[in-house]
User: Fold this.
Amino acid sequence: MDELVDVLDEKGRLTGESCLKSKVHEKGFYHPTVHVWCYTKDGLVLLQRRGSSKKSFPLKWDISVAGHVGAGESLENAAVREVYEEIGVEIAPSELIKIGVFKTEHKHSQTFLDREFNHTYLCQLDAKTKLQKQISEVEDLKWFALNHFKEWINQNYPDLVPNSNGRYEKVIQEIASRL
Assistant:
């Protein structure tokens, strides 16, 4: 879906401009996104396998939930919305624990340069929580042991979205500190 998103400068500050998500990617403008990592108190982490029609990293295992922040939308509201849209779980903003912001850049093609500031959160769920994947965006949802996920990272597992800026290591460290 093409939606309006805010444009950021190279330091992640609002420029006062917004444009369609497709144009942000075409022009390579920085923009905010939210990443929500769902985990259990028993050391499981929820990963989603991206849909086959995704322009970036189709069918790769990725963050539990990720999405763009709508123009003028708060980060927490975007995270809550994306959790509901992608995995069908209602959460409150108070259930989100912000662990950092990561600047990422991926050139997928000549007309698709993804330059984001990923506002990254943790959210504890119960592994028995009923999940409902968003058919248009998500191929599969699966709980993995945190150690299994760590092995994937250490082995540069090819079915995992490429890691950058130590994001995965930071997520593992933050989840492990809460177990």
